[in-house]
Amino acid sequence: MKAHDVIIKPILTEKSYAGIANKVYTFKVANNVNKVQIRKAVEELFNVQVEKVNTIKVKGKEKSQNTKQGRTVGKTSDYTKAVVTLKQDSKPIAFFESLS
What we know:
Elements: H1 3-6, E1 7-10, H2 14-20, E2 24-29, H3 35-46, E3 50-58, E4 62-67, E5 70-75, E6 79-86, H4 94-97
Antiparallel strand pairs: 1-2, 2-6, 3-6, 4-5
């Protein structure tokens, strides 16, 4: 699996912004990858050294909408979130540094 297929997009929330100063970054990743594949993808894409990777399975939320035909109920998709911590001697990821 290619590195671009493993990492889907960065997650930018208040909590993830707080971790940028400590070299902790959050990404939305493919559902069928493991921590080793995430580590290799981050190291390949951003040329950094990863210390550890934590993964979280996020369940989709149920959404409802009122229409002319009545109430419809749907669900957002499940996804996997990866919290990546870089080594202290590693350079920071430039994309996140430009945001802070």
